[in-house]
Amino acid sequence: MVNEYSDDNRILIVENFDEVEQPYTCEAWGAFAEENLPMIFTDGTPAWDFFLWDMFSLNCSAGTIVIDHNMRIRYVLDYFPSDYLNSIIIPELLVELEDSRHDINGDGQINILDIISLANIILYDNLNELGDINQDGEANILDIMAIVNLILGT
């Protein structure tokens, strides 16, 4: 199921992998991993240079990191993708991201400041996907109206 989200630009799932032959063989580790996910290999790296391993793993040989569209690390898991990641974590994160789509400036509130931010996107950066509220492929007045309607409750 994780593979279904590998092309979704709202989230990024990265796997960290170390100690190729410990405690499993390379083939066994490969069976745990998901296809199409970026993987960070730190096997063979000197112990003093485990920056990525230390940052993205919880004292184990394998770890999974879920990063949202703002490049914030949302989850650090000490295992490869599992049913829990597939059925709970990713769907909850996607619902949260969908609910926050109208919050253009990311302040946690949907108000006139989001309309102003969206107007600036439309005027100066029409290619910004953030401005495409109604997901029609363009940032335009219809997206502003979507936020206005949400604020007014209509």
Automatic annotation (TrEMBL):
Signal peptide: none annotated. Residues 97-154 form the Dockerin domain. InterPro entries: Dockerin_dom, Dockerin_dom_sf, EF_Hand_1_Ca_BS. One of its GO terms (biological process) is polysaccharide catabolic process. This is Dockerin domain-containing protein. It comes from marine metagenome. The lineage of its organism: unclassified sequences, metagenomes, ecological metagenomes.
